[in-house]
Amino acid sequence: GFGTFMAKSRHARGGVNPQRPTERIQIPEVTVAKFKTGKTLKDALKGK
Questions:
Q1: Rounded to an integer, what distance in angstroms lies between the CA atom of residue 28 and that of residue 31?
Q2: Are 2 and 40 in contact (CB under 8 A)?
Q3: Are 26 and 14 contacting, i.e. CB atoms less than 8 angstroms apart?
Q4: Against a cut of 0.70, is the pTM above it?
Q5: For 1-48, how does the pLDDT look when each residue is reduced to its tens digit (9 = 90+)?
Q6: How far apart are CA 43 and CA 2, in angstroms?
Q7: Is 1 helix (H, G, I), strand (E, B) or coil?
């Protein structure tokens, strides 16, 4: 088929505040949508 969406968890990590580059911030864990293409869509993009 076309493909599937799934929920994926991104781990918490450290980062830098873009407004104050010397300030370290903690980025919390979040759940994001991931898409995995199906064989039909991959073949269509390859021109098969």
A1: 10
A2: yes
A3: yes
A4: no
A5: 789 999 999 999 999 999 999 999 999 999 999 999 999 999 999 987
A6: 10
A7: coil
